[in-house]
Design goal:
With about 220 residues, the chain is α/β, with parallel strands linked by helices. It is built from 8 helices and 8 strands, in the order αβαβαβαβαβαβαβαβ. The protein has an 8-stranded parallel beta sheet with strand order 7-6-5-4-3-2-1-8. The two termini are about 15 Å apart.
């Protein structure tokens, strides 16, 4: 697998999706999801020009940070247990899975700087997915005023695993609309200008619907496990 060539293909697809939706491609950031690949493959992505990396396990994140340093931006993209916050908080630039007060409380306790967080929303309502319902999201964000170490930079969601592109698109549209509603509230600790949505099989739709961060694993770095 040639990671550089994969990145070129993904970049081209993103550019075309931006053209279709009258967006600037510079507003879309690719996160290489490296959960299932080695340090060596992750370094290939770094050498190819990727500057954002996503891990969903604390062990994997720490292993790769120790090997590759903190120059790239590190994103924690999986479900984060409160007891694991202390392990990763000094190394992450973004947490994509804030969805409960107990986690916010632990981030507040452990952080020594403001942490950029995405509030995770379960738009599709699937039991297999974590996150708040759309109805719970704004009250939760408003309550985060009690945690000054948390900055809500945006919302995150995962689309259902389906071939129905319209169903996927509707999830992303709903998240974007919710994000715009939060922005209209002008909450100081929640500018909510970012959207983390879209993975290997649906990132082009996500970009068309406003994604600013797409989380791409297999299409970019493959799967070695």
């Amino acid at each position: 697998m040639n990671v550089r060539e994969n990145l070129e293909t993904i970049t081209r697809n993103i550019n075309e999706a931006c053209e279709r939706s009258s967006r600037q491609s510079t507003n879309v950031n690719v996160i290489a999801v490296t959960k299932y690949v080695s340090i060596e493959r992750t370094k290939e992505a770094l050498d190819a020009g990727v500057s954002n990396f996503g891990e969903s396990r604390d062990e994997g994140l720490l292993e790769k940070v120790n090997a590759l340093g903190t120059d790239p931006s590190w994103h924690f993209i999986g479900t984060l247990q409160s007891r694991k916050v202390k392990e990763i908080i000094d190394y992450v630039d973004y947490i994509h899975s804030l969805d409960r007060r107990s986690l916010a409380k632990e981030i507040q306790k452990r952080a020594n700087r403001e942490i950029s967080c995405f509030v995770q929303v379960n738009v599709s309502g699937e039991e297999s997915k974590h996150g708040l319902s759309p109805y719970e999201t704004i009250p939760f964000i408003e309550a985060l005023k009690d945690f000054p170490m948390i900055k809500v930079v945006g919302l995150m969601a995962m689309a259902p695993n389906t071939e129905d592109s319209e169903e996927i698109r509707n999830v992303f549209k709903t998240l974007r609309t919710l994000s715009e509603t939060v922005q209209d509230l002008s909450i100081a600790h929640a500018p909510c200008t970012e959207l983390s949505m879209g993975m290997s099989n649906d990132y082009e739709i996500a970009v068309e619907e406003g994604a600013t961060f797409v989380r791409i694993g297999s299409s970019l770095v493959g799967n070695e496990k």
